TrEMBL record:
This is Carboxypeptidase. SUPFAM superfamilies: alpha/beta-Hydrolases. It comes from Setaria viridis (Green bristlegrass). Transmembrane segments: none annotated. One of its GO terms (cellular component) is vacuole. Its EC number is 3.4.16.-. GO terms for molecular function: serine-type carboxypeptidase activity. InterPro entries: AB_hydrolase_fold, Peptidase_S10, Ser_caboxypep_ser_AS. Residues 1-35 form the signal peptide. Keywords: Carboxypeptidase, Disulfide bond, Glycoprotein, Hydrolase, Protease, Signal. One of its GO terms (biological process) is proteolysis.
């Protein structure tokens, strides 16, 4: 079984968090529709004053809404934007993309990982994230491609065209039109970042921006660099690297690693039974260790026996599933610490 099809089951508490995020997204949609109904225009029409369950302090300057990327087909992408906590007029702009493909940058990146407002345990409300990345940058989360989150198209055939080139073009058009709505950020130092399948999205969008900047007739975007964490890039290197990392960090023994080298040819997309068995040994270690932050203590939330039984049943069902959620190799770590420790791959232009 190839690496991209592996699953790390989510607990029922995580599912409750996802439900809360869905409710928040519905609230966003209501805000956007109301803004249009009363004739608001520009960025102030997208301002979000306060979310249900949001702490009264510290204040959070945030915006959410749709940006049209293709008028003819009725295609629009949904965003959630947080100004920097201090001196937003001086801080760079950073775009965040979750991967999957199909994972929500709002539900995961913003509400679970690096945004200033995170869903609390068991989905009870929101809490301020003191490690939020908008401490150092203006933070823009984008639901991409169409069909993810609240991003939509009115042309059904668009959904059959979602290759990487299509996605990069839509994301670029989003940026051009977003800067028209937020002109104060045009010319600001700009970075693109993401995780998982954004190992494709991020560099391809960066390349497109770089190429379009050569055309003086195009909108100039002051791209300074990009970074990817836990990126899906190439099955061979991803799988080989996972085995090497587990061995070099004592997650598995020398014997297991030697067995993997002997029976696994990661250039083949369908692993042999022997390889699958050997790699299962690696994945089984991460039932007790956080695969994205191996030195962190395991987080155990109190659960009833019924909840535990339910989680076990869900895990079995999830392992058999081939749904899009299988491909969401998302972080459950403090990504700000990862960034500070230099664990991201960074490319500067």
């Amino acid at each position: 079984m190839p690496l991209s099809r592996r699953l790390h089951p989510r607990s029922s508490s995580s599912k409750r968090q996802q439900l809360t995020v869905a409710i928040l997204l519905l609230f966003f949609q209501t805000l956007c529709c109301n803004a249009e109904a009363v004739g608001y225009s520009g960025q102030e029409g997208d301002r979000v004053r306060l979310l249900p369950g949001q702490p009264a302090s510290p204040p959070v300057s945030q915006f959410a809404g749709y940006v049209t990327v293709n008028e003819r087909n009725g295609r629009a992408l949904f965003y959630w934007f947080f100004e920097a906590q201090t001196s937003p007029e001086k801080k760079p702009l950073l775009l965040w993309l979750n991967g999957g493909p199909g994972c929500s940058s709002v539900g995961y990146g913003a509400a679970s990982e690096l945004g200033p407002l995170r869903v609390t345990s068991h989905g009870a409300g929101l809490e301020f994230n003191k490690f939020a990345w908008n401490r150092e940058a203006n933070l823009l989360f984008l639901e991409s491609p169409v069909g993810v989150g609240f991003s939509y198209t009115n042309t059904f055939s668009d959904l059959a065209k979602l290759d990487d080139t299509f996605v990069a073009e839509d994301a670029y058009n989003f940026l051009v039109n977003w800067f028209k709505r937020f002109p104060q950020f045009k010319g600001r130092e700009f970075y693109i970042s993401g995780e998982s399948y954004a190992g494709h999205y991020v560099p391809q969008l960066a390349e497109l921006v770089y190429d379009r900047n050569k055309d003086k007739a195009s909108t100039y975007i002051n791209l300074k660099g990009f970074m990817v964490g836990n990126p899906l890039t190439d099955d061979y290197y991803d799988s080989k690297g996972l085995a090497e990392y587990a061995w070099s960090h004592s997650v598995v023994s020398d014997e297991v690693y030697e067995r993997i080298k002997k029976v696994c040819d990661f250039r083949i997309s369908n692993w042999t039974d022997d390889c699958d068995k050997a790699m299962t040994t690696v994945f089984s270690q991460y039932h007790e260790i956080d695969i994205y932050n191996i030195y962190a203590p395991r987080c155990n939330l109190p659960q009833s026996s019924a909840a535990v039984a339910g989680d076990q049943e869900l895990a079995v069902n999830d392992q058999r599933s081939t749904s899009i959620r299988q491909m969401c190799r998302e972080h459950s770590m403090q990504m700000s610490v990862e960034l500070e420790n230099g664990k991201f791959a960074v490319t500067q232009f």
